[in-house]
Every structure is written in structure tokens, then in C-alpha cells.
Amino acid sequence: MHVYLPFWAVLSRKRAVFYKSFFAFFCCTLLGSTAISDPLRTSARYSAILDDELVIICNGEPHLRETGQNQCVYVVDGVEFDPQIDHAHDLEQLSYTLSGATTKESESNGTETSLAGVAFNVGVTTVNWAVRDVEENTAECVFQVVVEDTEAPVISGMPANITQANDAGQCGAIVTWAEPTAGDNCAVVSFTSTHNPGELFPVGETTVSYTAVDAAGNETTESFTVTVNDTEPPVLSVMPANITQ
């Protein structure tokens, strides 16, 4: 029989035993085999086999993490996501499953009994821990790992400010430059500019901006200026010849 308890109800075997008779009576007499869930923690479940004193404890609150620097994943540090187990009999199996943004097939680190070193993808991953002892008693706990990408794209090769004279006979100049590139720890989904190489720029100063946006909406904008100077003197047309009279 599974009984789902909030965190404070399964902190130790001693406390689990304290709740044993009450929850056993409540479940068996009033609810039959219906599991009890904490309505205030819809994203978390804690379960314990009270009759045989097998308890697995997880922090069921959603775990919010950010991607590592220059990485599109969060790598688990140590045993932060591993459960605590209180048991009266020897354990036969401890394992986890992953679903959602990360699956067990997509990650290559960690072990069957620990999430240490596992790389969680951006998004929401549900972790389900399950334990079984030699008496075939089982218990499980479920929680979510939410990984966010907060790292903005990087624009490389941005041109320096450009200054040049106007083209002959034009009140401006055709200006060219080597375009910059954009990179991101995850993926750049948009890279735009206000002007393009080879355009005619008017006399005066014009700001050219490049903006990169990644899949998470993080944005980076960098700019340089193009200054066109009018260095061409005026031309006098139909100038009269010298006049003598």
C-alpha cells in the first residue's frame, strides 16, 4: 500500500511510525487504497511504505537552475537531487527516470543510483525516484528540475567606426565592411542589422546596429558609426568668359 505524505511527515522512520496507525486507519477505513496527496504541492509527491518502514525523501519543490556558462545545460553538482532513504530492510534497487526536457536516454553521465553529473536540458524535467527493498516493498518520490537559459548571445567581429569621404558627384558614399557574427550557448534564432554593407550612406553620421536574440529571448545589441564627410568642392557651371568692352 502506498501512502503519499508531505515532507514533514516522512523525515524519519520514527516519525513515519508515529503516523503509521493514523494513516493506515484513514486510508484503509475511509479511502480504501486511495493515495493521499498534499494539495499545496501539486508538483511534488512524497511516498512511504509505512507498514514496513520504507521511506524515500525528496525535496519536492521545483528546483530552479540556470545553464552553466557557455553551456546549454545544467550539470548536477554532487548529490543535490539524490533522495534520502530510511529503511528497515536491505535495499534491492534504487533507480530514477527522467521525462520532459531531459530523458534518461539523452544524458550520458550519472549512475543508476545518483543524479550527480547528469546534464539537464533547458526546460522542465520530471524526476521520479523509486526504491525497492528485499521484502518487495516499494516507495517513490517525484519532483521537477526547471533549467533556464539566462546567458545572452555574443556578437563577434564588430567593425570599428568608419569615416570616409563622399563619392564623386554624390552627397553620400557607398560604404562596405566585414559583417560580424553571433554565437550563443544554446542557439541564435535571430540576427538582424539596421543597415547592410554596400548601402549608400548620406553625408553625416549614421549609427549601424546589430542585434542577436537567442531561443530564450535573451538579446544583445552592438553598434558602430559610419561618418561620411563632404570633401567635394562646388562646381560652377556656364561661367562667362572674360569680357572686354
Topology, element by element:
Elements: E1 3-4, H1 13-31, E2 45-49, E3 54-57, E4 63-66, E5 73-75, E6 84-87, E7 91-100, E8 119-121, E9 123-133, E10 138-148, E11 154-156, E12 162-165, E13 172-175, E14 181-183, E15 188-193, E16 199-202, E17 204-214, E18 219-229
Parallel strand pairs: 4-10, 12-18
Antiparallel strand pairs: 1-2, 2-3, 2-10, 3-6, 5-8, 7-9, 9-10, 11-14, 13-16, 15-17, 17-18
Please, could you describe this protein's structure?
- With 245 residues, the protein is mainly beta.
- Helix content is 8%, strand content 42%.
- The protein contains one helix and 18 strands.
- Strands 1, 2, 3, 4, 6, 7, 9 and 10 form an eight-stranded mixed beta sheet that branches. A four-stranded mixed beta sheet has the order 12-18-17-15, with no helix packed on it.
- A hairpin with a 4-residue loop joins strand 2 and strand 3.
- The chain is rod-shaped, with a radius of gyration of 33 Å.
**How would a textbook summarize the main sheet?**
8 strands, mixed
> Care to count the β-strands?
18
**SSE string:** EHEEEEEEEEEEEEEEEEE
End-to-end C-alpha gap: 126 Å
Q: Tally the helices: what do you get?
A: 1
* Silhouette: rod-shaped
Rounded radius of gyration (Å): 33 Å
Beta-strand residue fraction:
35-45%
Helix content: under 10%
Residue-averaged pLDDT = 81
Category from helices, strands and their pairing: mainly beta
Taking pLDDT < 50 over at least 5 consecutive residues as the criterion, the unreliable ranges are: 1-51
Salient structural properties:
245 residues; mainly beta; 8-stranded mixed beta sheet; 4-stranded mixed beta sheet; 1 helix; 8% helix; rod-shaped
